[in-house]
Amino acid sequence: MYETNYHRASSIDDAVAQFAKGTDSKFLSGGQTLLPVMKQRLAAPSDVIDVAKIKDMIGIDVSGDTVTIKAATPHYDVAQSDAVKKAIPALSSLASEIGDPAVRYRGTIGGSLANNDPAADYPAAVLALGATIKTNKRSIAAEDFFKGLFSTALEDGEIITAVSFPVPAKAGYAKFPNPASRFALTGVFVAKTKAGDVRVAATGASQSGVMRVGPIEQALKANWAASALDSVTIAASGLLADIHGSADYRANLVKVMGQRAVTAAG
Amino acid sequence: MSTVKLTVNGKAVSVDVEDRTLLVHLLRENLNLTGTHVGCDTSQCGACVVHVDGRAVKSCTMLAGQAAGSNVTTIEGLAKGDELHPMQAAFRDNHGLQCGYCTPGMIMSAVDIVHRHHSQGSGGKLDEETVRHELEGNICRCTGYHNIVKAVLDAAGRMKVAQAAE
């Protein structure tokens, strides 16, 4: 790791102020992605601003039809939350399958979304549930937030403070984890909103990061059942191809994970 | 450079380190607590697992500064004097190690697994499948895991008895 300056922020305002002082600052939350990348010298921020202990950024609130998870809440706490389990069990289950137990104690929802790894789990839930990303400056709809691989609508120095999920009528998540890294080789989140709309998002599949899956949405809107996807074909164009799986393989995984997600949703 | 103050194995320490120092290097190089190992150095193998404020984390993926003000327990802090922690004793009795390199991390993760399941009210009744799944962040290249899993299940019973006696 190249040299860097570590700062622990005491508040959101303090984090923003500290960030502005560095020549090439980065916010640090759980560090489960940023630190490995810094160790490989693929990132060399002049300053890292630790936001993980800011009290206003930790916690879960469920009120009415909204689950709000503050940005520095670790995956473990989301997975363990009885309120989340009751309101959106698919979200709790997704959080319980990220990485391994040690990673879940440190990694946070805000860090995962700000990084927008094309194989991360949370972006699928955020996009499928139509969540809203709250920052120190504004609220960003899920549709407008993800901008391709490792790229988001966040401006320099803008910090995610919380994510609000509307409680769906039904939701399910299924992922095929890469057996070595546990990242999603492909993961699919299916949701039926209380208004009856169907939204489906896939992670790990597309070259442009998390994506909506139109053919599955249409099939499930007509018939909410795993069997409704039997005749659906997912186009392989634009999908990731690497040593772990070809684009055709991933196209098929999108369908199969979609079916498993519907089964999980019930 | 920054001065990092934290509690390690019950003892308050204050160490001057570069800001880029990882917790594992503070433990090994500044405090000479070499029981915590660096294996893969890419947060996959779990040889570096320690407890920070009661949670088992990978100390190769945490800056020393992030641990400032925290309570850290390493493998050296588990035994009570000459009396091994029940997890350590169970690893010895069940032959849960061969070369021993992964063992400190395995034991720290395993203690966390048992604590977590006790506190969730499952009465320490961990099953084999759960232990295998929850050890997925710890890699062992010698044993094939069988005796490690046996040791964790054995220790879960011993820790419950010890807890009840306290």
TrEMBL record, chain B:
Molecular function (Gene Ontology), one example: oxidoreductase activity
Membrane-crossing residue ranges in chain numbering: none
Domain 2Fe-2S ferredoxin-type: 2-78
Name of the protein: (2Fe-2S)-binding protein
Keyword field contains Iron: yes
Keyword Iron annotated: yes
Keywords on record: 2Fe-2S, Iron, Iron-sulfur, Metal-binding, Oxidoreductase
SUPFAM superfamilies: 2Fe-2S ferredoxin-like (SSF54292), CO dehydrogenase ISP C-domain like (SSF47741)
